Amino acid sequence: MADELPLPITKTPTMEENIPIIGEENEVHFKSYRELSYREHAPNDPYVHLYKNDKLIGKIKVWKDVEMKNREYICVNYEVLYLNTMTRRLKP
User: Fold this and answer.
1) Phi then psi dihedrals of residue 84, to 5 deg
2) For residue 14, is it within any domain?
3) CB burial class (10 A; 0-12, 13-18, 19+) of residue 70?
4) Percent helix, strand, coil in the chain (nearest 5)?
5) What are residue 18's phi and psi, to 5 degrees?
6) Looking at per-residue confidence, does 16 or 60 come out higher?
7) Which residues in 30-54 are b (16+ Cβ under 10 Å) and which e?
8) Which domain holds residue 77?
């Protein structure tokens, strides 16, 4: 019997790696801002998870407005949305 070669090690993508990043060039389709919510998923992470009607649609970068006492915001469809005006989700 010939020596068996070990199977190649493949990295299984985690859920986090499968979440698309929503960039400035991406358009998010929604009718009302009330459809959008967010969830922080890791401390000091520059991204939050963005939800539309309770469905995760991607990760989006959080910015700080230094002229507004470091209020955190995201840019959706080239519009500034302050996180303190959005619904914050505690659970996925």
Assistant:
1) -75, -5
2) no
3) exposed
4) 15, 35, 50
5) -90, -5
6) 60
7) eeeeeebbbebeeeeeebbbbbeee
8) 19-88
Give the total number of structural domains in the chain: 1
Q: 63, exposed or middle or buried, with CB in 10 Å at 0-12, 13-18, 19+?
A: middle
Residue 32 lies in a domain: yes
Average pLDDT across the chain, whole number: 86
Task: Retrieve residue 17's tokens.
Answer: 């790696």
Q: What is the pLDDT of residues 9-28, one digit of tens each?
A: 444 445 566 899 999 889 99
pLDDT digits (tens, 9 = 90+) for 66-88: 999 999 999 999 999 999 999 99
Q: Hey, what are 24's tokens?
A: 């400035």
Q: Are strands 63-65 and 55-61 parallel, antiparallel or unpaired?
A: unpaired
Single-letter amino acid, residue 25? E
Provide the whole-model pTM: 0.78
